[in-house]
Amino acid sequence: MRIATWNVNSVRTRADRIAAFLERQDVDVLTMQETKTADAKFPYSAFQAAGYEVAHVGHNQWNGVAIASRVGLEHVRDHFERQPRFAKKGEPELEARAVGADCGGVEVWSLYVPNGREIGDPHYDYKLQFLYSLQDTVRPGDLQVLTGDFNIAPRDENVWDIDWFDGKTHVTEPERAAFQMLEETGLTQITHDDLYSFWDYKSGRFPRNEGMLIDFQLATAPLAAKATRAWVDVDERRGTGASDHAPVIVDYDTHGLNIDQVR
Q: Which residues form the Endonuclease/exonuclease/phosphatase domain (predicted)?
């Protein structure tokens, strides 16, 4: 099973590009973040024409997550248990930041972890709460993968210049500790040789390869043991109309796995 995760930065803007990517890379399951659209406006037809079922959670032009699968899409969850709510002002709301489904015997989650904005901002505390609450979703003995934009570079080598990030989010000890806690619950980061998955549009970051690795697939041990290849499709960051993120792709040899291990 080939699973890809991609912060597409507006699915309506890039629907044709995403469909072409699915065909070019022969993807079985694609998780998307920052779809930036409400459910009613999601371009379902572009995915259905390519043979994919879609589960999408989107309320407005912000956030938004989706799973597109050609190997089945069952038991869709539009949030995880104890997912925190947020509002800088007014009544806190459950944002469109998580969707889960069972795809071909594997429980797949698409996650868009809050950015955090600045250290000390309420959004930073929300980010940490989101990550710690997410731990309750992990079931180490099951076939499960948590994918998406985690908005954390867990190690110094995951950014182009750690000194540039001094005093900024994404590399602070509390964020990294929360990411490590996820790993300690029984998740394994599927590693690859590609350095980065995100290059900011600003300041010509991509041509200078000034990037960050903040998009991940974290799998439970039974599934992680079956990962055979992983890479970042850097080509999808090139050219006019590209997202500022590139897809992270992993091949899992699911033959012989006990699919009853997924709820």
A: 4-245
